[in-house]
Amino acid sequence: MGTAWMIQENLDLIYTTCSNKQDAKRIARQLVSEKLAFCVNIIPGGISIYQDDDELVEVEEYYLFIKAMDGKVMDIMAQLPSIHPYQDPAVVCIKASTTEGFFKFLKDNK
Fold first, then answer.
1. pTM to 2 decimals?
2. What pLDDT score does 3 carry?
């Protein structure tokens, strides 16, 4: 059991948002079916607050957390603008670490 918590660092977590569930699911399905991502978590009920032309904007959004193996992030970043409904979507990539057990699961199921 002690080795299950060894850290692996070959994981990318890509964050973006969508205004509705249908678009979020469409993006998730496309990335997973094309094996660019192995999993996409869609979290409803998010609230984003930002300024646009000096006006405070508050909108409800769906948060997408795209999990990908190291090396797929550039392909995902290249594809997102063509499949995302926003003209300039927020796309943030984070290098992540995970447990050895989860990393093995990902490698075995890619």
1. 0.84
2. 52
